[in-house]
């Protein structure tokens, strides 16, 4: 049975699969939350992501390669993920944080930005995930 904890991109099999395939590892508290969100995915998706996490060595292979084109392609995928995460941060800010602020003027902006629908510290959580992705870019050499 599929369970949901509220609207959260952390439940996206696609994003977690990309993180696994490209060795994007997040800080411990975020990683624990993402692992918990896998319980809300179809079981086949969860198993696939676990297998990719255990078997994938794309980043390691690319780092060892002398092929600058391969490294450039790897980084282009990560840059697309970073762009997506930046856009997601903008959408959440515009449609969750700001709209909530308009509806509850008696609360301050800080209190509204603290918790997302998945129960995380919303904006710091999203920024940290984007930063973790940025840290996996590989050196392309000269």
UniProtKB/TrEMBL annotation:
Q: Which Pfam families match?
A: IDO
Q: Does the keyword Oxidoreductase apply?
A: yes
Query: Which GO BP annotation is one of this protein's?
Result: L-tryptophan catabolic process to kynurenine
Keyword field: Dioxygenase, Heme, Iron, Metal-binding, Oxidoreductase
Question: What GO molecular-function term can you cite, just one?
Answer: L-tryptophan 2,3-dioxygenase activity
Q: Which Gene3D superfamilies match?
A: 1.20.58.480
Record: residues binding heme b = 88
Q: Which residues form a coiled coil?
A: none
* Recorded GO CC terms: cytoplasm
Q: Carries keyword NAD?
A: no
Family designation: Belongs to the indoleamine 2,3-dioxygenase family.
Protein name per its UniProtKB record: Indoleamine 1-dioxygenase
């Amino acid at each position: 049975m599929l369970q949901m904890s509220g609207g959260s991109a952390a439940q996206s099999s696609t994003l977690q699969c990309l993180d696994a395939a490209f060795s994007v590892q997040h800080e411990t508290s975020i990683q624990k939350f993402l692992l918990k969100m896998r319980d809300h995915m179809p079981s086949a998706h969860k198993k696939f992501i676990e297998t990719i996490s255990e078997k994938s060595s794309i980043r390691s292979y690319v780092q060892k390669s002398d092929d600058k084109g391969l490294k450039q392609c790897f980084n282009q995928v990560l840059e697309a993920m970073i762009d997506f995460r930046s856009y997601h941060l903008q959408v959440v800010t515009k449609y969750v944080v700001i709209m909530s602020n308009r509806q509850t003027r008696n609360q301050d902006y800080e209190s509204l930005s603290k918790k997302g629908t998945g129960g995380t510290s919303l904006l710091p959580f999203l920024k940290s995930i984007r930063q973790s992705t940025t840290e996996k870019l590989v050196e392309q050499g000269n």
